[in-house]
C-alpha cells in the first residue's frame, strides 16, 4: 500500500490513499488504483466470487469485439490489470461484485464480519480489484463473470449481506440495479395526484423493477416501452404495465408517438446512448425525467431540453437511495412477474 497510517477524515474514508494516479482525485476518477491486499483499519478485503458488469459496459465490449468471447475476456482482464479496477474507458462504467469477507479492519463502519457473503453496492469503477484466475470460468457471453481475486472496500463504501432465500446470480442481478426502483418510488410518490409513468427499456432488469415500484408508489398509469416484438410480448404477458409500446428509444419522434399523451414521469433504463431526446419529448411540461443508464450523455440531455424549450426536471440516478437494496429485493420476492423477467435474463441457476 502507498503508506501505513490511516488517512484522516473524508479523504481516508473515501479511499484517496488507494489512488496511484493522478494525484488528488477520488478513486472513481483515478486512472489506476492500489490493489495491495493489506488493509487499513477502516477497510474490508473481499474474496471475489463473481463480478457483474453493468449492461452498458458489457454491450459496448460485446459490440467492439464482435461478440468474440475470448476477445471480451481479454479486454476485461486488460482493463482490470492496467487500472486496478473494472472501469470501462469507453462507457465510464463498471458494475459490482459478490464475494466473501476475508478480513474487516477494526475501525470499519460497514458492520461486516469475516465469512459474510456480500454484494458491493458501489461501482467497480472505484473499487480496488485484482483478479488471479484469468477469468477462466467465464464464457464471455454474459454480464455475470465468475472470478477469483480480491477487492477492497473503504469506510464510505456500501455493501449488503446476500439474502439466503435467493440464488446468488439472482441476488447479484437485483442489487446491481437496486437504485432504480428506489428512486423511481421516491419520485413518483412525490408527485401531486396519481401520475402517469413511462419507463423506457421496461423489459430489462432496472426497467421491470421501476415499473413495479412506480405502481406501488401510486402511479395511475404505467407505460412500458421496449425495442423488440419479443420483449413487447414478454412484458405484456407479465402484466407489469398498463400499456406496452414498441419503439427504438434512440428515435425521439418514434418514442413520443409510441407513448402518446406525455407522461408525468419518464424513467430511462436503456443501456445504449442516444435516448435523451426521446425521453424529453415523451415527458409533459413540468414533468420529471429520471436517467438511470450509464450511457446517458449529460450535454445531450441538457442541451436537448433547452433546444426543445422543454420545462422538465432531469435527474441522474446515482445508484444510491437509503434502503435501496431492501426495496428491490422485496419487489422481486413479492412480484412473480418481476422475478420471471429477471431469471429469463440471468439464466436457469437464478430461478431455483
From TrEMBL:
<dbReference type="InterPro" id="IPR058932">
    <property type="entry name" value="KDD_N"/>
</dbReference>
<protein>
    <submittedName>
        <fullName>L-erythro-3,5-diaminohexanoate dehydrogenase</fullName>
    </submittedName>
</protein>
<dbReference type="InterPro" id="IPR036291">
    <property type="entry name" value="NAD(P)-bd_dom_sf"/>
</dbReference>
<dbReference type="InterPro" id="IPR011032">
    <property type="entry name" value="GroES-like_sf"/>
</dbReference>
<dbReference type="Pfam" id="PF26370">
    <property type="entry name" value="KDD_N"/>
</dbReference>
<feature type="domain" description="L-erythro-3,5-diaminohexanoate dehydrogenase N-terminal">
    <location>
        <begin position="17"/>
        <end position="163"/>
    </location>
</feature>
Amino acid at each position: 500500500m502507498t503508506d501505513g497510517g490511516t488517512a484522516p477524515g473524508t479523504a481516508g474514508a473515501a479511499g484517496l490513499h488507494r489512488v496511484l494516479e493522478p494525484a488528488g482525485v477520488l478513486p472513481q476518477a483515478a486512472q489506476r488504483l492500489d490493489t495491495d491486499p493489506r488493509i487499513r483499519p477502516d477497510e474490508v478485503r473481499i474474496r471475489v466470487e463473481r463480478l457483474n458488469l453493468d449492461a452498458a459496459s458489457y454491450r459496448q465490449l460485446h459490440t467492439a469485439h464482435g461478440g468474440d468471447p475470448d476477445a471480451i475476456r481479454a479486454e476485461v482482464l486488460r482493463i482490470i490489470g492496467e487500472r486496478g479496477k473494472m472501469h470501462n474507458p469507453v462507457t465510464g462504467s463498471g458494475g459490482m461484485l459478490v464475494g466473501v469477507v476475508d478480513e474487516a479492519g477494526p475501525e470499519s463502519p460497514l458492520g461486516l464480519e469475516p465469512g459474510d457473503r456480500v454484494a458491493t453496492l458501489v461501482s467497480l469503477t472505484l473499487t480496488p480489484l485484482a483478479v488471479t484466475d484469468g477469468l477462466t470460468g467465464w464464457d464471455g457471453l454474459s454480464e455475470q463473470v465468475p472470478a477469483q481475486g480480491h477487492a477492497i472496500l473503504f469506510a464510505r463504501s456500501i455493501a449488503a449481506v446476500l439474502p439466503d432465500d435467493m440464488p446468488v446470480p439472482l441476488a447479484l442481478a437485483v442489487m446491481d440495479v437496486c437504485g432504480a426502483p428506489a428512486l423511481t418510488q421516491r419520485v413518483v410518490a412525490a408527485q401531486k395526484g396519481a401520475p402517469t409513468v413511462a419507463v423506457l427499456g421496461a423489459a430489462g432488469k432496472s426497467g421491470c423493477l421501476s415499473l413495479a415500484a412506480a405502481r406501488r408508489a401510486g402511479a395511475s398509469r404505467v407505460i412500458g416501452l421496449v425495442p423488440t416484438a419479443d420483449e413487447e410480448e414478454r412484458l405484456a404477458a407479465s402484466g407489469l404495465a398498463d400499456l406496452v409500446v414498441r419503439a427504438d428509444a434512440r428515435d425521439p419522434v418514434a418514442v413520443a408517438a409510441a407513448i402518446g399523451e406525455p407522461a408525468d414521469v419518464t424513467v430511462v433504463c436503456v443501456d445504449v446512448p442516444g435516448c435523451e431526446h426521446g425521453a424529453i419529448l415523451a415527458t409533459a411540461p413540468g414533468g420529471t425525467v429520471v436517467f438511470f443508464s450509464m450511457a446517458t450523455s449529460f450535454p445531450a440531455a441538457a442541451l436537448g431540453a433547452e433546444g426543445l424549450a422543454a420545462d422538465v426536471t432531469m435527474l441522474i440516478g446515482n445508484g444510491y437511495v437509503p434502503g435501496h437494496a431492501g426495496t428491490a429485493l422485496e419487489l422481486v420476492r413479492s412480484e412473480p412477474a418481476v422475478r420471471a423477467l429477471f431469471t429469463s435474463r440471468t439464466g436457469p441457476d437464478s430461478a431455483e
